[in-house]
Amino acid sequence: MKKRFLRGICAAVALIAAFAGCQTAPAAAPVASTIQAESAGFAPRGDAEHSSITFSLLFGNKEAIKSWKVEVAGAVGVPKVWSGDKTHMPANLSWDGTTDGGDLAPEGAYVARLSIDYGKTYQLFTQDSASFVLDITPPAGRIDLDPKEFLPADPGVSAPLTFTITASGGVAKIDEWSLDIYDETGALFRSFAGKWPSAKTSWDGSSTNGAFVAPARTYKAVATVRDEYGNSAQLKADVLVADVPSAIEKSLVRPRSSGFSPKSETLARAMDLLLTLGDMDDLKSWKLSVAHEDKGAQKSWSGDAESLPQSVSWDGTTDGGVAAPEGTYTAVLSVDYGRSFKPVHAQSEPFILDLTPPAGSVAVDPARLTPDGKGGITPVAFKIDAASPFAGLAGWSLSILGSDGNAVANLEGSGPAATATWDGTLAGGGRADPRTAYTYVAHVRDEYGNVGEIRGSLASGELPPVLGQAGIRPLTGGFSPKGVAAADTVTFALSYGQSAAVKSWKVSISNPELGAQKTYTGDSSSLPETLAWDGRTDDGKLAPEGTYQATLSVDYGSAFSPASDQSEPFVLDLTPPVGSIRLSSPLFSPIEASDTIALTLDASSPVANVDSWTMDIYDPGGNLFKTFSGSWPTNQVVWDGKGIHGEMVQSAEDYAVVAHVRDQFGSVGEVKASVPVGILVEKTATGYRIPESSIYFKPFTAGYKDVFPRLARQNIARLDALAVKLKKFPGYKITMVGHATMINWDNPAKGRAEQRVVLIPLSKARAEAVQEALVERGLDVARFTAEGVGASDQLVPDSDLKGRWQNSRVDLFLEKE
Prior knowledge:
CATH superfamily of the largest domain: OmpA-like domain
Number of domains: 7
Low-confidence stretches: 1-24
Helix content: under 10%
Structural class: mainly beta
Radius of gyration: 46 Å
CATH architecture of the largest domain: 2-Layer Sandwich
Number of helices: 3
């Protein structure tokens, strides 16, 4: 910069000397002006950091300037020109590589030429910047691999693989490269990086976490090559991994029998699993697991080459030591040979784990003892109808018991046929008394040794009603499975009359229109005092919203007549509250027009009463600004525009409102609105202040038009509104005060330099930009004064990276003329 300045001075002196003898020549050369390219090159199609080039401008003797022009010149001509006069002398210009016609300029070397016309005051001034490069062509090249594929070894691979990246650029030098390797799922497996010209790296097949490539897989190598101005290209290659061979000898697992019962008193209570392990010399480890057909693995054993059993015995317990679920099982033997052979998985034939004894019923005909007219009874036929879930029946016995519980007669049989007749003959002699009630006990044995018991009675009269009340009662009036945890189920209190006599019970939950949705059943082994329903049907889906009732049915077998009870109705609540938020004013201006705004929440729930609510207000940056809460029917808040810490809303911004409404059963709905804030005018001791004009500037510039289209439209709308507002204050001088955000806030020395060299000029330029926009909208330029204070008057600390956007602003001060 200093050398260019001196060259400009020398050129100016030469021009003065050349025209010293001419009385009509302009005066001595002006104070030197400079133009400087801020980088040696740029790439419009590259990364954001190098997508444009900035020219810094310094104008000498600004007051004498008639016009100025900046031309970008190269071997192809002048693709880009900027011009202006002394009313607009920017501190910098940015070129994105396009011509004045909007096309991309040709690749190559260029200079930026500054020309200044001072009229008759000074000589015409020109100066060129240092040469710079417009880089368009991305690098090109390839990836070479040596060897062409990995060979699996134990562990890892037999030898590393070397990647060689060959690449070249257009007008720019290759700067750096990176190499990413992805597995077949597209997940990143390993990364490398380096600086050019060193473009070779070796890979041992390991991932970033120490794992190795898998056999018979193809990995993707993607190299990204970047030139010095940000243009980049991707080069791709496949990395192959060879497969490992299959095992030579077979491995097998075989159950000794078709099933077993750990509860058997007569047969084997464990299952022996017979093992055959192949290729034992290369075996690394083995694992045996038994798995239920629906519920997966329950028990496993494992070992290495030092422990190779011929059989394993399973007692029917899980790895946790509890009884495994009954059902059909298979055993799976897994053998790991490292990378000598592929893993082997051998599966056995299915076998049965039998835990449930046979169950069923006994049909008695006649059901009551009937006198036969000869001092005895009419013969009673017994037919046992029983089954086991997973086993066939092997035999049965039936005993008839007297009132003391001792057997008075015994019957038995084998196989599935289970019928017998009792003619009333007693084991000790004599005949059954038809006036006496007897009971019977049938024992049914399945093929794996489980024994089930079926009891019944030979009554002498009708069954009596149960003593006590069987009942069901909901403990709440409703619930919401989608709501808060405290109310996501409904609990029923149950009573069974005479609990000791219960044989089975059933609870059915029904909707009047849709019928039964959920059913619970149990027997005498499980008589819960309470039962909770989570709102789901028997197939696991949520039941429809609405009113329900629960019905309890109790079966007492032969002891009592069945009993039932129906609950009071209750509500299943699935739909959260819905509603809206009404604003008392369409535009909120808490300083000028109205001190407060009322936000009214209207909400309702289809099947429940609204209970409570919260209302959160967020600033334009998405930060929580203010929060309210209340209990229904209170549904309105009055907001003074201040935040949690007393800060006031920003001018011309929208503040998002999010309300969460909870009904009586815990279901929560969300309601949204937006509070638009107008242009704020604040009374001061000497006039008025319009804090924060809310104009969004392009970073590090005073430009408000060359931003994202949405922000540009927002800027135009706010400037229009600001102009309308200022026209309501005729006779007032307007001082524009620009502010900026400091980047070097954590370095005092750099911060002071940044404030002096960058931020004060930048903030003044922003104030002038807003002033110019207001003049374009009909305000008298003579009313304005523009100042820049840089980062000396911040709304929030510049260290607040999330909130410091508020510091880049322009404030307006109005004072009576």
